[in-house]
Amino acid sequence: MVDGTALSKLVGELLIAIHTLTGHPLPARLPEVAFVPHAVLEQQVCGRPCEVYGWFPPGDTIYLDQRLDPLEDVYARGILLHELVHFLQQEEGAFAPPTSCQAWVEREREAFEVQLRWLAAQRATGHSLARRAPMPLRYACND
Predict the structure, then answer these.
(1) What is d(CA 104, CA 2) in angstroms, rounded to the nearest whole number?
(2) Could you tell me which residues are beta bridge partners of residue 62?
(3) Rounded alpha-carbon distances, angstroms, from residue 112 to 18, 82, 83, 119, 143
(4) Which domains occur in the chain, in start order?
(5) Helix boundaries (H) for 72-142
(6) Which 3 state secondary structure label does DSSP give 32?
(7) pTM of the predicted model, to two decimals?
């Protein structure tokens, strides 16, 4: 079980890092982070088995795979950071609402770019469940 106080501190630190990398303003509030079984994420995000480790639907809660420990694992922190980018996008009104495929792609592209830049700055190495997280793919939109 992840320590709530330490997690809140980490969320604040990651939000500052995202602000530094993107210029997105810091939010007036912190999102909640909930750890859920992998199967819940698969059902909510993919509707089938898939490699999903985090999800931020519109609202106040980021959902992370319960197998992740962002306090101990740099790659898990990268997943949390990615979802925090989406939280900041929401709070700023950037890409809102993502009603088109292209808006969704731009939203994801920014989150992946920030995640990859942050991980590179951490000189992340080693093996981790979260290291296998999907990286950006090229999407073709028809809208």
Answers:
(1) 30
(2) 33
(3) 12, 6, 10, 10, 22
(4) 4-132 (3.30.2010)
(5) 74-92, 101-122
(6) strand
(7) 0.88
